[in-house]
């Protein structure tokens, strides 16, 4: 079983990267054309989650550990962006009253 994973895991990861391009494109489209701010924030979370997954899968394909640092940075920036955008939305909601 371990031998099978050692030989086929990079191929499986490369296929998964290709498959993840579809939701990446769809969430980018939702972020660009979303009807409201909440839709755009959820699309941003989707984009960061997919980008982290792609970075981790790229680490498996290439065998370079630096992609895990990139995945961590993307996750951190995505979290901070979501927090700041939600604070902005709350501020806009308070000004409308």
Note down, in words, how this protein is organized.
The protein is mostly helical and 97 residues long. It contains three helices and no strands. It starts with a helix and ends with a helix.
CA-based gyration radius: 17 Å
Poorly predicted segments: none
Tally of strands: 0
C-alpha end-to-end distance: 62 Å
Task: State the main characteristics.
elongated
List the helices and strands and how they pair.
Layout: H1 2-33, H2 37-62, H3 66-95
Helix pairs in contact: 1-2, 2-3
Quick structural summary:
With 97 residues, the chain is mostly helical. It is built from 3 helices and no strands.
């Amino acid at each position: 079983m371990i031998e099978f994973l050692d030989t086929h895991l990079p191929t499986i990861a490369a296929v998964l990267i290709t498959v993840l391009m579809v939701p990446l494109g769809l969430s980018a489209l939702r972020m660009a054309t979303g009807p409201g701010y909440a839709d755009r924030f959820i699309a941003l979370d989707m984009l960061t989650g997919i980008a982290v997954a792609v970075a981790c899968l790229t680490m498996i394909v290439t065998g370079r550990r630096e992609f895990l640092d990139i995945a961590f940075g993307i996750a951190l920036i995505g979290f901070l962006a979501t927090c700041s955008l939600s604070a902005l939305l709350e501020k806009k909601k308070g000004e409308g009253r």
